[in-house]
Amino acid sequence: MAGLDKDTPLPTDITLHKQSRVLEISFDDGSVFRLPFEFLRVHSPSAEVRGHGPGQETLQQGKRDVDITSLEPVGNYAIKPVFSDGHDSGLYSWDYLYMLGREHDVLWQQYLDCLAQAGGSRNAADLPPPAPKSGCGHHH
Question: At 107, is the secondary structure helix, strand, or coil?
Fold first, then answer.
């Protein structure tokens, strides 16, 4: 886990909007980000999603309807959401959440592009079990 650098804004407020499936997070620099649960789930920082190196990422599919059932604080630097599909190994540090908020549009478009390349779907009902592994990684 990367530690927080001193320039990372700290969250002043974190709200789970369960109806709209959005995590709203306010930072002390005045930024407010509304991150959909699906977006958070497919960009989980956990090894299960990110793999152990570039190109090792597992494309997450069928997460359109995923919920966050609870949020657990981790020290003073992160939160650990528990998702309705059982995924709970992602630690979202403040700097990672801030980056997700800032880069949301770019990251989301990359994800949609990857899904399209893989012939994947955001709807769980559309997926053939088991979901095929795709070589589509994230490029930064």
Answer: helix
